[in-house]
Each structure stands twice: as structure tokens, then as C-alpha cells.
Amino acid sequence: MKKILTFLSFILLLTFLVGCDAWFSPLFSTTEKTTISYTKINGTITFEDSDYQNLPFYYSDTYNLNDIDQYNQILLDTKDHIRKSNILVNTVYYSLRFPWASSNNRNVLSIGSGFIFLEDEEFYYALTNYHVIDSNQTDAVVEIKTFSDTEFVLAEVVVYDSDLDLAVLKFAKDSREEVVILDIYERLYYRFTPGELVLAVGNPGSLTNNVTFGEFKSRENLNDVSFRVIYHDANIAKGSSGGALVDVDGNLIGINTWGLEDSDEHSFAIPNYIIYMFLINNGILD
To answer: Do residues 133 and 91 make contact, with C-beta atoms less than 8 angstroms apart?
Structure first.
């Protein structure tokens, strides 16, 4: 009888340890970066969600700083950095005021956010949510305004995926100087660490280039979404859709896409590896 009780106790202990594996995981890991094993199907790549668990946690020296002033300065620098990558995105159409009028009415159909992630000699390229630019108005256009712009300029929709709720815009570089290209690669092959600081940038309500702070909570399933999304508690609101979610050092983690109407502390974002898959499959990245 004693042997049976000992065996059962061992089984229960083993079960507990396996079930609490995530609880015992270290907050940060210095494990070397590994590669996500994207699977190619019909010429496109797909991300196997099971591969996520094999990725190491991200390690940032910022969390090891003992000088509070230096730490605070990094947060302020990151805030300033991501604001200069943010864009205000409007979907609009112009209707005739009067037959004799010299200008048209500007009708705003939707307001959202986006961020610049790529450039070439002539254009900047920005990511946003598809639902920000989606419109039943056939003659609608997309207009954007960067951090330093005083007027809206036209943007072209390069590619989009309504199922993933992602889109890429491009617009002329012109003579802009205060523009930041957000790093979309640094956090690509790492897991998100529960409790790590995240920053959300966007244009909620009447605010522009607004930055809020919160923490990564977990990855969750949402209805009608084919992949697990990022759940965090940085405050977002209507107009934040398409805005960047970054880590303490300003590296892209995801795109803020969903929130709850009755809570400003339940925010959800498309993960960076889904974004990368979208960009690869649509020829934006090699």
C-alpha cells in the first residue's frame, strides 16, 4: 500500500510540474535567437502556431539598468521614437458642395493609425489595419499625415488582406525629415514575456501621436480570428486601430486592432510574426 501511495504521489507531482511549465519559466532568457519554421503552402508561407513555444524569451539590457534616470530617459526616447513613425490615416471622399462651388466637401469615412516600416528612394511604406481603409464608397481615397505634417497627403494602397485585417500604404517621401522607420525584425524570433512593458502609439479620439504604456498579458483566441492574438493592457480606443505596439526599446511587437467597448484595459494586437508572413506573401519583403 505504501508503494502505491508513493507512486501516486510521484505521478501527481509530475503532472503539476508539467502543467505549470509556463509558471516556472524565467522572466527573461539569454537563449540564442532561433528561426520560426514557416511552412510553404501553394507558394506562400504560413506560421505554425506550435513553433511559437520553441522560441526563446527576449532579453533587453534596459530592464537591468540600476540608474532610474537612465531608465526613464530610455522610455522617453522610445516614446519620441515611435511617435515619429506613427501616421494618421483617414479614408475620405469628396462630394460636390454646390454646382457653382470652387471646392468639394471633404467627408471622412474612417480614422485610424499606421506606422512607417520601410522606405525606398521615392516612397515611405506604412502598415495599418485593412478595416481602417475599407470603404463601400467607390470613389473614396486614403489620406495620411505624418508626425511633422501640417496637411494630409494622398497615399496609395499597395496590398491588403481582409482576412488578416492588414494593409500596406505608400506615399511620397518629399522633403520630410522627422520620420522614423520602425524596426519590424528585432523581436520576430522571440516569445513575448508575460509582464514585459509595451507601448502603444496611435491616434485615439481627438488625440494624435498618442503613446500609452501597459504590459503584455498573454496570447489569446478571438472569435473570427484564425490566429492567436496579443492581449495587453496599454490603453487604446477608436482611432488606435493600425497603430504600432512596441517593446521597451521601440521594436515592433504587433499592430493594435481590437479593444473592448466597456474597458480600456483589454487591448488586442496582431502579432509581429503574422505581419511578417503577410509582408512576405505579398512580395513587400524578400
So the answer is: yes
Q: Which amino acid is at 204?
A: P
Cβ-contact 149, 106 below 8 angstroms = no
| Amino acid letter, 32 | E
Provide the CA 281 distance to its chain's centre, in angstroms.
Answer: 18
**Which positions are annotated as active-site residues?**
131, 165, 241
pLDDT in tens, 104-162: 788 899 999 999 999 999 999 999 999 999 988 888 999 999 999 999 999 999 999 99
Which residues 6+ apart lie within 8 Å of 54 measured at CB?
34
Contact 85, 181 (CB under 8 A): yes
Contact by Cβ (8 Å): 142, 134: no
pTM of the model: 0.83
SS3 assignment for 200-247: EEECCCCCCCEEEEEEEEEEECCCCCCCCEEEECCCCCCCCCCCEEEC
How far apart are the C-alpha atoms of 231 and 188, rounded to whole Å? 17
How many of the other CB atoms lie within 10 Å of CB of 122?
10
